[in-house]
Amino acid sequence: MLKSIIMKKILSILFLLVTLQLGAFAQDTNLTFLYINGSNNNDTKMKDWYIKGVNKLHPVMIKKFENNSTIKKWSKDNKLVIEEKPQIFFWGYDSKTDLDFVKERLDISKAYSSTLAYEVRSLLTQFMHDAIWVQKTHNMLPILDELNEDVKENAEQGQNVILFGYSAGSFVTYQYLLYKMPYVNLSKLFKVLNADEEIQKLAVDNPRKDTCLSALSYDKGNIGVISNTGHLVLNQNKEMLMENYLKMDEITDKYCAPKDKVRGVVNFASPVPLFYSDMADKNYDFTFYNKYLVKYVLENGIYFLTVNFREDPLGFPSSKNLTNQQIEELLGLKIENPTGVIYDYSSVWSKRSAFLAHTSYWTARGTFAKGVVKAFVNGTKFQYDEKYQNKVLKKKSKKSEV
């Protein structure tokens, strides 16, 4: 009888240990890769092409991530496990009506244009229309709201996300960060905009959590009206503005990205600098917000990576790679305890021709996934490994002397 009791206790302990061990290895997945489509994906055939490409790429991307020691450590430190199934955010059909309008005009031109002129015009329509369409603010903002709902739904299920923006999809990821990340301190913003003293005092005495640009707009928090250039005109009804300010925490929760759930962005085949070159203009209002977005990204451990094939004619480098100190000097802002990374790797060799490279991120998926991992690793080292940083800067210095 005694032996039987002892044996049962031993078996119970062994069962408990095995269960705990299996639980440690079988951590639920909690990191979703969310892929966003680019131009020329607005019919069933091209949507299927995009989805098929993502489904082939995603397992390769997971494998490259999980086999890299730097990313393994990052995942372990942040308790992240990649979801096996990719998610796709598709905005292609939104532009179809406008594209059909252009194609009708294109057909009219066929009657009097030379074959070459018509074919060139047709090719430009095919590749450029959606990129131009989605760049327009009135088309972009509803897409950002829809994407944010997806991100929030993932967050409610315990999922973090990394956004992968392909081609014109990189416009969506960039604008998502600009409009939806909670980097706007209202008290400081009221001061910069020289708001009424009573409003400034209200903000100081009744602090609200940081919010996002999207939440300020007249159709949401109604703090003011944001122009296409980013200029914010405060609500001229003082009482309404004060009342709306006090409700901003609720509005922020509804319309801004959930804090600490967007872990990164990977833009690829990205022509962002070509379409958003006005960000270089110091007098452009969005430049002011962009500075605080960069500060937010770096202070909140977000990875903002650009990865392009060197042969891709539409793959533009997002910027020079800068150290945190150089970024501080450029922004004129102090970055507190940075852990994020902003890094460009636009020299990935795909071994594809210039005609094929832009659509080859799916077929050359091993090369592309390896490039993303390399951007993650080298970006981390460049920002936070002083020895590696000095080595790279020294190499750049020698090149500039030639």
Describe the 3D structure.
- With about 400 residues, this protein is of the alpha/beta class.
- The protein has 2 domains: about 30-180 and about 260-400, 3-Layer(aba) Sandwich (Rossmann fold), CATH 3.40.50; about 180-255, no CATH class.
- Strand 4 (about 225) and strand 5 (about 230-235) form a beta hairpin.
- The strands form 2 sheets. It has a 6-stranded parallel sheet, sandwiched between helices. A two-stranded antiparallel ribbon has the order 4-5.
- It is built from 17 helices and 8 strands.
Radius of gyration: 24 Å
- Per DSSP E runs of 2 or more residues, the count of β-strands stands at 8
Strand order of the largest sheet: 2-1-3-6-7-8
How many discrete structural domains? 2
Please work out how many helical segments DSSP would assign.
17
How would you describe the shape?
globular
CATH topology type of the largest domain: Rossmann fold
Straight-line N-to-C gap: 88 Å
Class from helix and strand fractions? alpha/beta
Any idea of the CATH class of the largest domain? Answer: Alpha Beta
- Approximate helicity band: 55-70%
Q: Quickly give the CATH architecture of the largest domain.
A: 3-Layer(aba) Sandwich
Q: Report the order of strands and helices.
A: HEHHEHHHEHHHHEEHHEHHEHEHH
Q: What kind of sheet is the major sheet?
A: 6 strands, parallel
The average pLDDT is 85
Low-confidence stretches: 16-26
- Assembly type of the chains comes to single chain
Strand content: 5-15%
Quick overview of this protein structure:
The protein has 402 residues and is an alpha/beta fold.
